[in-house]
Amino acid sequence: MTAGPVAPQRPGERAGRAGFAPVLRAEWTKFRTVRGWVIGMAAAALVTVLAGLLAASGTRVSCRGPGGQACRYLPSVPVGPGGEPVTDNFYFVHQPLTGNGSITVRVTALTGIITYPQSNPNAIVPGVEPWAKAGIIIKQNTGQGSAYAAVMVTGRHGVRMQYNYTHDEAGWPGGVSAASPRWLRLTRSGDTLTGYQSADGTHWTTVGTATLAGLSSTVQTGLFVTSPGDVQVSQGAGGGSQVHFTQASAVFDQVSLRGKSSGAWRGDAIGGGGHTDWERNHRPAGAEQSGGTFTVTGSGDIAPVVDGGSGIERTLIGALAGLIAVIVVATLFITAEYRRGLIRTTLAASPRRGRVLAAKAVVIGSATFAAGLAATALAIPLGERILRANGNHIVPVTALTELRLMAGTAALLAVAAVLALAVGATLRRSAATVAAVLAVIVLPYVLAVASILPAGVSAWLLRLTPAAAFAIQQTLPQYPQVSSAYTPANGYYPLAPWAGFAVLCGYAALALILAVFLLRKKDA
Amino acid sequence: MNAAIEVTALRKRFGPVLALDQMTFAVTPGRVTGFIGPNGAGKSTTMRVILGLDAPDRGTALVGGRPYASLERPLTQLGSLLDAAALQPSRTGRNHLLWLAHSQGLGARRVAEVIGQAGLELAARRRAGGYSLGMRQRLGIAAAMLGDPPTVMFDEPFNGMDPEGIIWMRGFLRSLARQGRAVLVSSHLMSELEDTADHLVIAGRGKVIADTSTADLLAKTSGGRVTVRTTAAQAASVLASAEAAVAPAGPQTLTVSGLPAARVVAVLSASGVTFSEVAAHRASLEEAYLELTAGAVDYRAATAGEVA
User: Fold this and answer.
1) Of the candidates A221, A136, A133, A242, which has an alpha carbon nearest to the alpha carbon of residue A481?
2) Is A520 on the interface with B (CB under 8 A)?
3) Three-state SS for B39?
4) What is the Cα–Cα distance from B283 to B255, expressed in whole angstroms?
5) What does residue A124 show for φ and ψ, rounded to 5 degrees?
6) Exposure of A173 by Cβ count < 10 A (0-12 exposed, 13-18 middle, 19+ buried)?
7) Integer distance in angstroms from the first to the last C-alpha of chain B?
8) Tens of pLDDT along B74-104?
9) How many CA atoms lie within 13 A of A469 on its CB side?
10) CA-CA to A157 of 20 to 30 Å: which in A193, A225, B44, B169?
11) B9 vs B287, which has greater pLDDT?
């Protein structure tokens, strides 16, 4: 080998404005020139898409009649004004109201029963479900899912003003009794509906105001009672939850209606009312009128559907497999250098050790994000199409939420890759690193969502471990005014999407800081 | 003249082992400096300290007057090869050089140049995992030359090389020195370096035992031994009276030290002693080296008096 003559060495010469860019470029060249790593990253994307599509293809909802023949139609879920699926089941004593007007009542009692509760599983016990509702409502029509505004008393959440299924505003706390009744008033003025509360029928305060755009001139108004199922989340191993049928009865008097109305009350069980054998045989939903006093009994809810497991994120079930592949590739990106002694060559070429690790983190994070984004951008629309074609109900989401699901899942993979890199730089061993990272992110996630652990423990795992980041995948809204099993198994996370993601970012940042500290301190 | 590499009073302890103990030497441009010593003398540790890979407990190592870690594009200042096996097996030789080039702001053209200079054209696009040891050495040397550095440093470059490769390597090292570069080459075998190194730094047990030009070391150690072949019984006493140390070295053979060969001939001739042969025995560097490092390979304490 021959080499050219040597340029004279000038002491103190700054050899270029090197900086971070060359280190970054070198690490990128390193990554892309090991075929196994590139294939591994592509495989992570592929398995994310394919596992999602496979799961979607295998989930088929079919409906068979009692004789085994196919149903004429699939049961349809009512949809609210906002496009979301809703529950719209209650007993309604109503009459039409045309133009502006108002309805006023006094509620003197709210009672109910709960069937076979966990505390007493063989009995039907008296009790009011916390979100049992009794009050007055102005509703577009008696069809399920139509626009409405209502002001009501509840089992344990005081006076509320609710409208169009998802909106809920609190009024005075406390229940009702003959000694301490609640007066309620709802007025319509154009598209604006205002709810009022009063203790004596004289002094009124506003609970809330709703604007129902496009409300027709003639609407239905009257008294309503409903009571949702009582949800019990099991705290034992195995998780799970049970829902128990409940019913509520309320006593109304001092009913007055202002405006153009027919004057004749009519009772209807909106949504068909209760259908259990028990209810049919014992105490049907309905209304009794005695003088000016109405006793109305009903079951159901006027609320958004909380439909665990039917979020669009189920199309990303394959991301877990993709995550495992990403963790392996990110680990090898650093531990392979330790295994071969190549780390010395790297650090001789780039003596700023913090820069080297930062460059590696940027490279593996960006490569993973790109692969992850390609995977989620394919898996979500394709999986959604397959699921819908197979008759599955998927809760619709806004474009922004879908974007958050796509980019957030890709970011989750990317930050997990950085975490694996940092742990790898600290442990310097491939197998130990992969095991450690799987143990802190994949294992808690699986334990929590597979209902292996009690719901409370699962929730804490998803607050404290890096697996909290899976909250970024939750698209199902959690409504405080709807009792449900908001458990990880049903797709509900204890932290908000970006808060959960921030937990993972925190772990990755700490691991990276520790890795840089050790890399600087220890001999290579 | 500014030293290309300057190592001052390096001290480093690995647990109970004192790996470096006041290691001090300098490497100057235009010549090959052999860094020689038995295994465990601290050669590799010193080189890692020079590259900023290991931190010394005490002392400094400067490259071109600055700590290596402060250099912005260090491969343009000091090219090195510590471990030819330090390769990602699934990456091609060319791509190995490419990422190194990118780390120094260099491009693919420079990679092609060093591949050509190292004679790696045929192997460059194959995975490095399939390279023979000799090919790995060539790849490592190509990597060291990427930045066209004024100073190069090779740790045991002859290891695993076939005789042809050793000859090539010697020529290569000398050509680098002729170009004005400073060259530091380590070895645990003097025979690998004796025809190549202009200067020798002999290390043992973490310190420098001798820091000398090759010529000086040879002159100093080849002074004394002459073999005399004679049948005359009085030869030994004649030479002893001329203040030479005489020892029988076989039948009719004496080893004489303390007198140059010309004096031996003169003394014997003046006394009328007949002899059939007088041969000046040039001590090899190998012997000089073994003598110097005798105290360093076993675990007796090396005394300060051994330091040249």
Assistant:
1) A133
2) no
3) coil
4) 13
5) -100, 120
6) exposed
7) 23
8) 999 999 999 999 999 999 999 999 999 999 9
9) 27
10) A193
11) B9
Quick: pLDDT tens for A26-59: 999 999 999 999 999 999 999 999 999 998 888 7
Task: Report chain A's terminal Cα–Cα distance, integer Å.
Answer: 30
Per-residue pLDDT of A372-405, as tens digits, reads 999 999 999 999 999 888 878 788 788 999 999 9
Task: Describe the crossing of helices B163-178 and B133-145 by its angle, rounded to 10 degrees.
Answer: 10
Whether B103 sits inside 8 A of A348 (CB atoms) is: no
The residues near A498 (Cβ < 8 Å, ≥ 6 apart) are A472
At residue A126, what are phi and psi to the nearest 5 degrees?
Answer: -70, 145
Do the beta carbons of residue B173 and residue B270 sit within 8 Å?
no
Residue identified by tokens 């959440």 is A157
Question: What gap in Å lies between CA A129 and CA A126, rounded to an integer?
Answer: 10
As its CATH architecture, domain B223-280 has: 2-Layer Sandwich (3.30)
Q: Where are the beta strands (DSSP E) in B15-118?
A: 17-27, 32-36, 58-63, 78-81
Nearest to A34 among B90, B118, B119 (CB): B90
Q: What are phi and psi of B272, to 5 degrees?
A: 75, 25
Q: Read off the amino acid at residue A275.
A: H
- Buried/exposed B206-226: b ≥16 CB within 10 Å, e otherwise: bbbbbbbebeebbeebbebbb
Distances (CA, A) of B99 to A469, B95, B156: 34, 6, 24
**A contacts of B64 (beta carbons < 8 Å):** 9, 11
Instruction: For A246-367, list the strands marked E by DSSP.
Output: 246-261, 266-270, 286-290, 293-298, 302-304
Closest CA to B220 of B210, B228, B230: B210
Neighbours of B20 (CB within 10 A): 26
User: Which of B48, B104, B180 is opposite residue A349, by nearest beta carbon?
Assistant: B104
Q: Does A349 touch chain B (CB under 8 A)?
A: yes
- Torsion, Cα B21 B24 B30 B36, to 10 degrees, reads -30
For chain B, give the mean pLDDT: 87
- Buried b or exposed e, range A442-471, using 16+ CB within 10 angstroms: bebbebbbebebbbebbbebbbebbbbbbb
How far is A471 from A497, CA to CA, in rounded Å?
5
Domains B5-213 and B223-280 share a fold: no
Q: Return the structure tokens found at A486.
A: 């908001």
Tokens of A349: 């070429």
Q: Which residues of B fall within a CB distance of 8 Å from A12? A: 65-66
Number of H helices, E strands in chain B: 10, 13
For residue B136, CA distances in Å to A27, A376, B57, B112, B149 come to: 21, 42, 33, 17, 20
Cβ distance A348 to B80 less than 8 Å, yes or no, reads yes
What integer is the mean pLDDT of A96-119?
Answer: 91
Superfamily grouping for domain B5-213 = P-loop containing nucleotide triphosphate hydrolases (3.40.50.300)
> Hey, where are the domains in chain B?
5-213, 223-280
Q: What value of ipTM does the predicted structure carry?
A: 0.82
Task: Please name the residue that has the structure tokens 């390609």.
Answer: A374
A43 vs B285: CA distance, rounded Å: 60
Inter-residue contact A185 to A203 (CB < 8 Å): no
Which positions in chain B touch A27 (Cβ < 8 Å)?
A: 99
The reported pLDDT for the residue numbered A115 is 83
